[in-house]
Amino acid sequence: MKLKKTVAVLLVVIVGVIFLLKSNNNGGEIMAAESKTKINNGKKILVAYFSRTGEQYSVGNIKEGNTAIIGKMIADKTGGKIFEIKVEKDNYPKGYTALTEYAQKEKRANERPAIIGKIDNFADYDTIFIGYPNWWGDMPMPVYTFLESYNFTGKTVIPFCTHEGSGASGTDSNIKDVTKATVKKPFALYGHIAQNSRKEADKKVSSWLKEIGY
Ligand SMILES: Cc1cc2nc3c(=O)[nH]c(=O)nc-3n(C[C@H](O)[C@H](O)[C@H](O)COP(=O)(O)O)c2cc1C
Fold first, then answer.
1. What is the mean pLDDT of the chain?
2. From 3.40.50.360, 3.40.190.10, 1.10.10.10, 3.30.420.140, which CATH number describes the 41-211 domain?
3. Residue pair 206/70 in contact by the 8 Å Cβ criterion
């Protein structure tokens, strides 16, 4: 008799726990779906960025680029789709000084290095976040290749940039010239903060996105 009672109590507890776990899960899913729609404002978002690993100023040898870190945070918070701008022939040196020299030559020659991949459904995107490191007070040349490859008419472009002191150096006006899109004020963050103080970076990204309505 005692055993039967114990088994019955155990069963009730197990069923109760299963019920609780299930309802929590559903709640989580609904919450995620709701918050995503709310943040996106019903807009389809693309997060495109160019970023380098290897030796970078003030952070040493990095495995994940500073701008890439921010790009992933933006995509995560807005539900945007990531497109990494990568060059077909990657001749960029892995050492910092050599990279600065290479990049300077590329900029002086106003090159347009070919990039890998194509976004098929580009027309569907309403908002394009475009990320890059500040290179010599400008965007890296492959970002120009990217911007010149698509029709941005009627779209909103939101630049984000990592740097080590220069901010975004007015790159938004270059983006405006190339794309003729509506270009918002760039979000600029020190590369070493993105790399080494991720919580601080995450907070800054969140409050900026909130401020601009995403
Ligand atoms: C070629 C090159 C040029 C740079 N020029 C500048 C500059 O003019 N102003 C500045 O603040 N930072 C400059 N930096 C520093 C980068 O903007 C910074 O380290 C950035 O966070 C690197 O991002 P990534 O890891 O996404 O490539 C330069 C770095 C490189 C490699």
1. 88
2. 3.40.50.360
3. no
Q: Which of 164, 195, 197, 198 to mutate to test the pocket of ligand 1 (most atoms within 8 A of CB)?
A: 164
Task: Give 194-209 pLDDT, tens digit per residue.
Answer: 999 999 999 999 999 9
What the block records as the tokens of 151 is 């029709």
Do residues 170 and 140 make contact, with C-beta atoms less than 8 angstroms apart? Answer: no
CA separation for the pair 24, 6 (Å, rounded): 27
pLDDT tens-digit series, residues 3-57: 566 656 655 556 554 554 444 443 333 333 333 434 467 889 999 999 999 999 9
Nearest CA to ligand 1 atom 18: 163
| pTM for this model (two decimals) | 0.84
Instruction: Dump the DSSP string for 137-200.
Output: TB--HHHHHHHTTS--TT-EEEEEEEESSSTTTTHHHHHHHHH-SEEPPPEEEEHHHHHH-HHH
